[in-house]
Amino acid sequence: MSLIAAGVHSATLPDNCLVRNDWVCPLYVETRSDVLLGALGQHLYLVLVSLAVGVVLAVPLAVLAHRVKRARGLTLGVTTVIYTIPSLALFILLLPMTGLTSTTVVIALALYSLTILVRNILVGLDGVDPEVRDAAAGMGLSSWRTLWRVEAPLALPSAMAGLRVAAVSTVALATVGAIIGQGGLGNLITTGYSSNFNAQVLTASLLCVVLAVVFDLLLLGAQRLATPWRRGQR
Amino acid sequence: MDWLTGIPAWFADPANWRGDAGVPTLFVQHLGYSAASLGLACLVALPVGVWLGHTGRGGVLAQQIGNAGRAVPVLALLGILLLVPGFGRTWWTLILCFTLFAVPPVLTNTFTGMREVDRGAVDAATGMGMSASEVLRRVELPLATPMIMNGVRQAAVQVVATTSIAAIFAFGGLGRIITRATGSAGIDLSAALAGTLLIAAFALAVEYGLAWAGRRADPVARARRAARKRSGRVGSSGGAGAVTTS
């Protein structure tokens, strides 16, 4: 098609995957490793901080919802509303408070993970056999000790399943933070897209998926370690 | 606090309601993309989910598709597909992408709903002499309806959110109001927040509208309501649904 053009260009431009705009380009990874690592670092920061905030808030909320009937309806109602609001909208909704900072993204992502976690912890607590609870009371355990020693371990598998879903979807959702320039790998995807830079879009996208899978496997491992009594089942 | 007073002013400005970039046009675009993708996804995922659930095969596949759907960022898939020659920047690419994200919730929920139908009920129906297709139509599908509708609702909310994100790639829909207001020149906070309110309201209307439709469509709940009406008792219960992985 463009033999002449290629002939002209070969004199001025080196022929490599960056120039050809290939999707898979090792040279891109080599030459832009600092940019990639920076974006990956921000992505990790967004995910880890928002998951941590989500867990810290979700546990007491779920326990409260489990014990107080009125708090239960309120918690479920509010979390449903939060989860329904699209990420693009939620990021913008927080702008007046926190501005164009990564805090905006962290708060939004923490709210989403909080929603998933509260529901799963609540399902786990609800699933505890009432007879087990009675037995704990009969053995003289206080209500808080029952929670810590009996209910928490039994609710752990459901809670961990929720944490895995929250982690995987937070990794994916963090990219949308690019709308305010704070999306970690998402920034590379949007800037790569607008400049038709194929290698950057594909590399950042693949890194996102790999990151999600790594989080999932790490949490699966943690779940196995934390619930040794379930090993061998299923 | 200028941005706060700017929001009603934005809604009051007739310029925001007219033409190609007006709210009605953007809303129709948003609704059209979402409805087309959700319809396509249901067309694919409902029969497959029902069949897999009915036969009990492919459970791992149905779960894995659900997990994969969560792990792939919308932004990534959309960015890649729009750059791939052959797909390109067409609305077909958009609808294909949205459909891919709507399939997993419908598929996994339909499969789970079909699998969780009480085996005793299926055995009883078979014992009463129902054929396999009668068991499917008159026992399994009605009992699986709440879960199936749950999946359709999740998919619908997902599609509305995904369609908003498409505006980052300069497509239409309500997200356009937000992306238009956020540029390198700074942010028009009032306009962005007005767009946010519209998107959030749309998503919530879809969530609660389909939740209501799901309750209406559930044959078991309908029979219970009828029975309650006859005996004159009123009551309801709500539970938390777990978000699962496997």
Features:
heterodimer; A: about 230 residues; mainly alpha; disordered N terminus; B: about 250 residues; MetI-like fold; two-stranded antiparallel sheet; 10 helices; globular
Question: Would you summarize the structure shown here?
Answer:
Chain A contains twelve helices and no strands. Chain A has helices at 3-12, 17-20, 26-31, 33-67, 69-84, 87-93, 95-98, 102-126, 130-138, 143-173, 185-194, 198-226. Residues 1-7 of chain A have low confidence and may be disordered.
Question: What would your notes on this structure say?
Answer:
By secondary structure, chain A is mainly alpha-helical. Chain A has twelve helices and no strands. In chain A, helix 4 packs across helix 11. Chain A is elongated and about 85 Å long. Chain B is mostly helical. Chain B has one domain: MetI-like fold (Orthogonal Bundle), CATH 1.10.3720. Chain B has ten helices and two strands, in the order ααααααααββαα. In chain B, strands 1-2 form a two-stranded antiparallel sheet. In chain B, a hairpin with a 2-residue loop joins strand 1 and strand 2. In chain B, helix 3 packs across helix 5, helix 5 crosses helix 7 and helix 6 packs antiparallel against helix 7. The longest helix of chain B has 34 residues. The relative contact order of chain B is 0.13.
SSE blueprint:
The complex is a heterodimer of chains A (234) and B (246).
Chain A lengths: L2 H10 L4 H4 L5 H6 L1 H35 L1 H16 L2 H7 L1 H4 L3 H25 L3 H9 L4 H31 L11 H10 L3 H29 L8
Chain B lengths: L1 H11 L10 H33 L3 H13 L2 H10 L7 H25 L3 H9 L4 H34 L9 H7 E2 L2 E2 L1 H29 L1 H13 L15
Antiparallel strand pairs in B: 1-2
Helix pairs in contact in B: 1-9, 2-5, 2-7, 3-5, 4-5, 5-7, 6-7, 7-9, 8-9
Membrane topology (chain B): Multi-pass membrane protein
Protein name (chain B): ABC transporter permease
InterPro entries (chain B): ABC_transp_perm/SBD, MetI-like, MetI-like_sf
